[in-house]
């Protein structure tokens, strides 16, 4: 039995501690605020054909946990004002095996869908490593599936693919391959150090100038009507001839397929909103080329950034090339957090484009006993409309994942159809940008439902000010310390005073300590008015057991 003090045991098990990247901060907030929505927990389903020894596969993935620090990382936000991540010296492996060998193909497909849905609803505990789960499913007849689920806060898609490659190469070696051992990976901590070395003043100025034409948010969906998110999806695959033509167009014009898809999306959004100044979100790779070996590092490097496009009625080629040049300029400043870019303006967009890039091996060398014959990815974000795109010479496919509270099924289908048609138009060799005019705006179905005259939404209704309670005064002091501005009335709103997601987490942490109670960050989002928030705290104090502060990690 280890009789050392708890603090000493914790210190000895810690390998490293460092801050979060901007994207990690955003994902941490969403995980705290909505832990059960099933967003940002991707699942990769690998179709395997051939003999697989599940024990060897298990051992290979255990080795991956030892090899990659991000798989031994936990996240903490209550012990300090700023959240931080802790790399532990060791961690277990969440592994399970299922036998579906005696089940027909149709039933297996149903079970797989149900399994992915169940997995999605099982939230990760961000304070417990590893933040990955693996399930090996025996389909019988030397066919199987390997399901890898992970929290996005530790890995992006490219990194997940690199780890799968490492695991399969390790499997080969354990089965007698003469391949040399894998080289030691460069730690994710080096990327965090690189981020800290950036001088942000010029980058902030760049994004201020870049978004200057966006006078109001670009909305493709309605406000939610309440309740939990209700996600669904639709899929579009372009005709193979269109994919071939699109690949040729990109080569001839010196643009990437990503730019072609962004251009098509901008045109469709311009038609829907009636504005030529379009903005939507897009993920960027975020791997700085000056960081040696960055292409082989694993962790979360991607960032979500606004894409601002002026849809011009003119020649197609120079317009697309200008978009490519603008993206190249953005790449030099792609590390700034979205919350800083949007500071004081609210969310600029509700539609996100994700250009999929999972380098999962579809073929293993002849030394292996199995091959990867297919890959499926199940992934959801908090945005009400997310487009996951794959584009190469062989195929252009787009999956629209949407919240049915915010945009209807028929609208999503029509949106995808128009997007596919616009891609086909441009790939077909037209000389001019597909036409956009104010008359094209079709916003009736996407607009927020009108309220009866004189009706205010709950958030618009003014609350009467009353005398301050002692709890309100204590909370107001915390708000002032965090926001650097004083609340003037107990009807003041946290977010109107300049609050945002990470500041909300900081306030909640301080309130928890101040009153020795525990509650989720979501409470502040549901009750942002000082009086309402304080009333909740008073009610909780009357019923809650005191918080056990000994569970905090000691540094």
UniProtKB/TrEMBL annotation:
GO BP term, pick one: monocarboxylic acid biosynthetic process
InterPro entries, per database record: ACP-like_sf (IPR036736), CAT-like_dom_sf (IPR023213), Condensation_dom (IPR001242), PKS_PP-bd (IPR020806), PP-bd_ACP (IPR009081), Ppantetheine_attach_site (IPR006162)
UniProt GO MF annotations: catalytic activity; phosphopantetheine binding
Database matches in SMART domains: PKS_PP
Superkingdom: Bacteria
Keyword Phosphoprotein included in the entry's annotation: yes
Cofactors required: pantetheine 4'-phosphate
Boundaries of every Carrier domain copy: 466-541
Annotated SUPFAM superfamilies: ACP-like, CoA-dependent acyltransferases
GO cellular component: cytosol
Descriptive protein name: Siderophore biosynthesis protein
Organism: Agrobacterium fabrum (strain C58 / ATCC 33970)
Source lineage: Bacteria, Pseudomonadati, Pseudomonadota, Alphaproteobacteria, Hyphomicrobiales
